[in-house]
């Protein structure tokens, strides 16, 4: 089943995608009597016919930015995303005012990620969103185009925020952590086990930085301040202890008898003298997104 984060992302993609099938084309600069027919093919979603007509035209005029843009649109309609991205990027390099090509690159990676959910496609999607968000505006020379660009960049920034959400499942191969959102815009972190070794709360500091505190350990409980940082479009999570401060005694859930609590109390105090925190896991965790 799709998790909530991925559903949110796909819904945003649906809103974002002024898709190749309905996206208005930029003003025509390419020559040739076939151009109106090609544009007609695209408007009618006749992508195979458009690709067949554009292939020879692109070979004959391979440095024509508009032909590359149209060819990329036809390939995107056929879900040949890698070839489409190649042509959109060439179009943008040949004419850096054709910012729509950057939006189509973002759409291609959105569609790929919606299908695969792979971390690699997530990274490529994040890079495409950042590229679109960084395109400078044409200013007063094209008010309508500048307004469209700003709206596309706002959607790209919203997508970056979704990608940089910590919500999901994380693992380093030994332990698995889950992060869920709270109603107050904070996050809960815990282990998927009956007895939680690490549970706590944290809040966003900026786009990729978080801070919070946790209760840590199975036999002993420690009050720990930690920071979390997201990397690579939310595919890596660095969880680092800042201060393993306060030993608060053995876990009463795992200590049914007073005698056992006394034994654990001594064990925990010995551990506190030897280490700043729990000895069971390192003080810095590098986790990969699993879901």
| Residue share in β-strands | 15-25%
What spatial order of strands do you see in the largest sheet? 1-2-3-4-5-6-7-8
Q: Kindly report the average pLDDT value.
A: 79
Helix content: 40-55%
Radius of gyration: 26 Å
List how many beta strands DSSP finds. Answer: 8
When the domains are counted, the total is 2
Any idea of the CATH topology of the largest domain?
Answer: Serine Threonine Protein Phosphatase 5, Tetratricopeptide repeat
Sketch the major β-sheet: 8 strands, antiparallel, barrel
**What's the overall geometry?**
elongated
> How many helices in DSSP terms?
9
Helix/sheet category: alpha+beta
Low-confidence stretches: 17-31, 276-282
Cα separation of the termini: 11 Å
Q: Could you please describe the fold and organization of this structure?
A:
With 291 residues, the chain is of the alpha+beta class. It folds into two domains: 4-163, Tetratricopeptide repeat domain (Serine Threonine Protein Phosphatase 5, Tetratricopeptide repeat, Alpha Horseshoe), CATH 1.25.40.10; 168-289. 46% of the residues lie in helices and 22% in strands. The protein has helices at 4-16, 35-43, 47-60, 65-77, 81-94, 100-116, 119-133, 143-163, 258-274; strands at 168-171, 176-181, 187-191, 198-204, 209-216, 220-231, 236-250, 284-289. It has an eight-stranded antiparallel β-barrel. A hairpin with a 4-residue loop joins β1 and β2. α1 runs antiparallel to α6 (100-116), α2 (35-43) runs antiparallel to α3 and α4 (65-77) packs antiparallel against α5 (81-94). It starts with a helix and ends with a strand. The model is unreliable at 17-31 and 276-282 (pLDDT under 50).
């Amino acid at each position: 089943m799709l998790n909530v984060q991925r559903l949110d992302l796909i819904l945003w993609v649906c809103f974002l995608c002024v898709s190749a099938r309905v996206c208005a084309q930029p003003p025509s600069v390419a020559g040739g009597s076939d151009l109106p027919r090609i544009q007609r093919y695209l408007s009618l979603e006749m992508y195979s016919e458009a690709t067949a007509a554009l292939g020879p035209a692109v070979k004959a005029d391979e440095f024509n930015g508009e032909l590359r843009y149209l060819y990329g649109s036809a390939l995107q309609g056929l879900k040949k995303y890698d070839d489409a991205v190649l042509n959109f990027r060439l179009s943008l390099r040949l004419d850096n005012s054709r910012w729509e090509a950057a939006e189509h690159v973002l759409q291609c990676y959105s569609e790929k990620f919606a299908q695969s959910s792979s971390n690699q496609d997530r990274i490529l999607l994040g890079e495409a969103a950042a590229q679109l968000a960084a395109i400078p505006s044409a200013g007063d020379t094209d008010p309508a185009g500048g307004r469209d660009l700003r709206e596309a960049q706002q959607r790209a920034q919203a997508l970056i925020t979704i990608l940089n959400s910590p919500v999901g499942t994380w693992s380093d191969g030994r332990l698995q952590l889950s992060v869920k959102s709270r109603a107050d815009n904070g996050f809960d972190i815990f282990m998927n086990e009956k007895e939680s070794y690490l549970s706590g709360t944290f809040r966003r500091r900026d786009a990729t930085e978080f801070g919070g505190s946790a209760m840590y350990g199975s036999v002993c409980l420690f009050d720990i301040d930690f920071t979390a940082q997201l990397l690579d479009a939310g595919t890596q999570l660095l969880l680092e202890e800042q201060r393993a401060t306060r030993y608060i005694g053995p876990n009463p859930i795992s200590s049914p008898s007073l005698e056992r609590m006394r034994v654990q109390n001594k064990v925990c105090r010995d551990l506190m003298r030897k280490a700043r925190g729990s000895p069971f896991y390192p003080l810095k965790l590098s986790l990969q997104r699993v879901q």
